[in-house]
Amino acid sequence: MTLEDDARDYHRRPPAGKVEIATTKPTNTQRDLSLAYSPGVAAPCLDIADDENAAYEYTAKGNLVGVVSNGSAVLGLGDIGAQASKPVMEGKGVLFKRFADIDVFDVEFDHDDPQAFVESVAAMEPTFGGINLEDIRAPECFEIEESLRDRMDIPVFHDDQHGTAIISGAALLNAADIADKELSSLNVTFSGAGAAATATARFYVSLGIPHENITLCDIDGVLSESRAEAGELDEYAEPFARGVDDGDLEDAIEGADVLVGLSVGGIVSREMVRSMADNPIIFAMANPEPEIAYEDAKEAREDTVIMATGRSDYPNQVNNVLGFPFIFRGALDVRATEINEEMKRAAAEALANLARQDVPDAVVKAYGDGPLQFGPDYLIPKPLDQRVLYEVTPAVAEAAMESGAARRERDLDAYREELEARLGKSREMMRVVLNKAATNPKRVVLAEGEDEKMIRAASQLVEEGIAEPILVGRTKEILRTAEELGLDFDPTIADPESGEWNHYVDHLYERRQRKGLTRTEAAELVRGDSNYFASVMVSMDDADAMLTGLTHHYPSALRPPLQIIGTADDADYAAGVYMLTFRNRVIFCADATVNLDPDENVLAEVTKHTAELARRFNVEPRAALLSYSDFGSVTNEGTRKPRDAVEQLHADPDVDFPVDGEMQADTALVEEMLTDTYDFAELDDPANVLVFPNLEAGNIGYKLLQRLGGAEAIGPMLVGMDKPVHVLQRGDEVKDIVNLAGVAVVDAQAE
């Protein structure tokens, strides 16, 4: 099947289209319905009648954008009309929701008259928190946007104009820096003089490029003063008329530092590129065929050609989805009256800054595992980089507040955390721990310190003030890798191959001499096994916590810290716990990694350790010991162990959280079963700590919940150790290392 056939099937598959309306409040009972509609709805209606701003509190207005079009200039399709443009507008709504959690109604008006269009859109102001104008032909789009901005007290934004301007502006900020050129000295030539080109030219002026350094060309050549005097230019292009009588694109490109293509494919030759200034910047953004092919532009010269296109199959895709969802998110959340120039600049600058940061592993994988590092081939972030939401959006909101466009003030630190929580419950939960860690950072030794991920994680830990990382490994190798990665930090390194570590050898020998270890073997382990080295470092209080396991199988990574650090004074057993986060629920699963066939003593101890861990995430524990039996419905050796463990816990005066069992998993998680069928149970609410009867069940159970239940998993977190130790899973990402380091720091704070 062709792409077109697949797209038709995709859109017509029941239910037809790409969007639906979902309720956000319960509608299960008669009372729910009386609150949602008559008679209860009268109360908020009357409040809004007294104060229109109450609509933001009682309705979805504050998170609702209208995507509005007449279908007169649909990208790549032209004037196809309002009805035919609807799939595009629905698609725009999908992007708003996917990237910024903004709800959308798409509205298609069958208007050719710009004034009629304006009247229709303006009349919808009570419905929406913002208006995104889409696919409207020039020059009517300028007139429509200006009229609506003047008339409406909510943000109005024509993405076809400003989106490309903002995203390419971010790319230009970084490209100029890489090319070692000042914005104020750049000579910029535009191929194209339509809505996107003129809006982009205006935006570049606001970034600092002199107006007189910008030349626009259309199909008839350079926009000149003589053409303006002859009435050939509209009022939006006329300000860029130059004092030349004639000239075409080829003339305008000669000597230019920057070429911005917003026209048609294939009109720029290699010879034109060769005529540009040293280290030229070329943004060839015509789609699907750029003004000059990526390969042709790169091969045209011997020096550096910094290239961007509108295509996803080449580096530096100028994609508007990097802009409009996050700009509207920030504008809506401060209830802005407009999206002004300050907010657009803030978005461009934040995108440019984000491109200079280390790229998450998940983003690298999503784009084919190729290197993504700030430079000529990586000027702007990728659309799937989730950090755009909580890096760009607060910058837009801050600019709105500082420029006077906001009607609501936001604490930016709290707002950033709120945005991060929109990405999933795990983000919200980890932010609790990372904030705690940052209040009193501890020394965390990273046993596999030469690994690229460990070095990147160490850099992030330092930058965010979460921990004081110590990398174990060869100093030269670590410094070389850090330099290759472009990381600007001075790592703390413990090199087992250099320095005086005899006291580490003595300590290890003392701990293991009656376990068959000779002093010679101890010296070999300290010098040659980073897990033993790191374990001794923690045991001797030269570090507060330890992370390992990234390149080792779990049992082999766990063995050295168990031998040297051991379990806590009040613990006989360690256990591995996963935190699973669902949309509205958090569950801790134990034991998933350590104890193969625990007895009742192990189960009871693991329950207490897991409850302590839950409290470090500000979760008040409610524990259930699981089985295939409910409270004695089956009696055998397997069901007896969790039942006896519960009796131990009930008799323990130090247990100050509700715990019960043995019980089946659905009994533990379904409130009606607990409160109705088993009203005697100690749990009044569903359990959030699930203790599995053995390792097999625990490992299978958490993975089923993760994969089929759509949960995000954080862990495994090792509990019961004398000092904080966490063993990563092989292949974990940098964010997993940072998260577990944060947990380790909070563990160490409690020591």
TrEMBL record:
SMART domains: malic, Malic_M. It comes from the Archaea. Residues 16-149 form the Malic enzyme N-terminal domain. Its cofactor is Mg(2+); Mn(2+). Residues 161-401 form the Malic enzyme NAD-binding domain. GO terms for molecular function: acyltransferase activity; malic enzyme activity; metal ion binding; NAD binding; oxidoreductase activity, acting on the CH-OH group of donors, NAD or NADP as acceptor. Pfam families: malic, Malic_M, PTA_PTB. GO terms for biological process: malate metabolic process. Keywords: Metal-binding, Multifunctional enzyme, Oxidoreductase. The keyword DNA damage does not apply. In the C-terminal section; belongs to the phosphate acetyltransferase and butyryltransferase family. This is NADP-dependent malic enzyme. The lineage of its organism: Archaea, Methanobacteriati, Methanobacteriota, Stenosarchaea group, Halobacteria. The gene is maeB_1.
